[in-house]
Protein 1
Amino acid sequence: MKYNPLQIATLIICCMLCVTSCSSDSVYEPESDKGVEMSFDMASESRATTTVLDEFSVYGEMKYQTGAADPIVIFDKTQVVNRDGVWSYKGTQYWFPKHEHSFVAVSPSSSLESTASPQYINSKLSFIFTMPTYSGKEMQETQDKNELLDIVAATHRRFYNGSEKDGVISLRFGHLLSKINFAPRFEDNTVKKDDYIQFHKIEISGLKKKAKIAVTPASLLENPQTDDRLIEFSEYDGTDNLTITFNGSKIVSNSQQINLFADADALKMLPQLFEATSEATVRFSYSFKEDSENQRVGSISLGGQEWKPGAAYTYNFTVDKMGLNLEKPTIKEWDSVNISDVKWIVE
């Protein structure tokens, strides 16, 4: 069959129109701004000041403006390491104009091993965290933290419009566990001023052993970027007991108050809510100076109490001949100065 020149020209134009139509229906393919590279740094006012941080794993994704399409993952458990003061990762990522980018970072990276079953979906990182087993373990003076991961996390969310030249993601890490301490005061006018009490042992029962942690960057709302985050603990499983024996060093003189643990040795525990009906308790074994062979036991209920992530709790109580009398605990953000008091109930 032969075609005249007019038919051939018409056929070419139709093919071009078809290609243009198909192209307009294709999936959006973003292009990065090759001039602005993503890099990581540590915020100087990080609340993780008591933890040596030299590496972390980061998850990250992006989505075009406020589109409904699924986000595109750009970091998937990518390890970021500090070498001579410079944070680096394998490969290179760039900021994408007109895209909202979100990041979740966790350290140590070992907390995200396969047994933790990490999942990263729609900006949320979730994983299983398990405490060491303390039941049946003899601990002297302090909590055995050899197998305990002092886990910290940071988030960042930013809308990159294409004009910014600062590609640094400055991460503000915060603790995910709770820090617990106890501060007894010996106050008894019926005994001599040079009398004292001595604490021999502390026992905590009914502790949760395992939980699912979810970390999500907060929404931007009207802000171009935010480091705020949402922390969720759920799916608790298992129970454990903790016992620490003191070797005669926890002495409280009359009219004085001490912390049972130095700040660096305070208990690091899984954040949890103790139901009102919980039988979880804290038991103290102690004795008076003139009756050191006769140990007494004072118990305090944990029912109705809550340990929140990143919070440090110091439980204050007074001891006299009649027993234990609990006061308000001091609660503050871990390594922060914001303090608020709440009541704690004596059993």
Protein 2
Amino acid sequence: MPQPFTQGNQIKKRTSVLVFLKGTTAPLVLYVENPLELYEELLQVLRLNSPTAKLIEKNTIGPVKRVCIQSTSICAVALQDEQYM
């Protein structure tokens, strides 16, 4: 009987935070220790809809190591699950 391709390799899941910025087509993909916490923080910024810009600076654990975003440039946020080995 054929062996499954993933034998010996555990498929894992990680969650990233997608930040959609005004004037861009692709989202900024951020990997952090607690993605739900960052998502909720950015969602709160969107809910406030303040005309005054606030600078949001975060350390991340993915390819982007540190990010700084102006609060007024955020138009949407999302959580995305990804599978990897």
Protein 3
Amino acid sequence: MKKWLSYILYIVCVTIFFLYYLFPGKAFTSYINHHINGLLPGYKISTDQAMPSFPPGLKLKSPAIYNQNKPILCADQLKIRPAYLSLLSINKTFFINGLAYDGHLEGIADIAFKPESKLNLNLAFKDIQISQIQSLKEFVAYEITGTARGKIFFNNQKANNDKGNAEITISDSSIKFNPSLFGIDQLSFTAIDAKFEMIRRKITLNHFKIDGRQLSGDAKGFINLAHPINKSRISISGTLKPHPELIKEIGSIFSKKMKKGGVPFRISGTLEGPNFSLK
């Protein structure tokens, strides 16, 4: 009996060893990218290492999502665990838990691989440090700091009808301008709240509100997505409400544009080359 038990333990240990150290990470990544292209054409995932985890699931080290070979989102680590009974059905459910940009994210993804790849994603995140998102610097020429939390929903289960929404709150944030913008070197905000809605290739900014000691404001608009993503077109307009501290500093600029309720502004152009103007 002891000998049989020793054999069983030996087999278990050897199996675990080979499962971890000989896990076909590259083959697995290629398999995942095949399905990602079906879900989100033009996107792919890259990871430094893919390995099994316990409880049974998958652990990805330094995963990143790319669009046109440019990194869009990165993480330090992702753990993906299936709802085990769902593996027997067409629609498979996965639980996601990860670390990214000094923050944490978790969510649930329902995926159907046949006959066509379909995705239903609910993702929540918190304590994300904006300054560490390198891809943001591709679109914004200014230094942005702050801590973000929020949630994202995406669904493409109906043919030609991708849709989603997102709610994001950024606290204790600042924007440093180099060169200065209208003589302003930096703006600080206590809170930034935004709500987005996506239908097909159009993202609508339904709600945007900023609040700070120097400035407050609101805005609405839309972004028409394109490939590559930095070619996406922007059309956003709103109102800035300068506070006494800022008016004292650069009052001459706002006095010419000031209307009832604030100073109207507009952002147009593309993500890679946005144009900002006061109306």
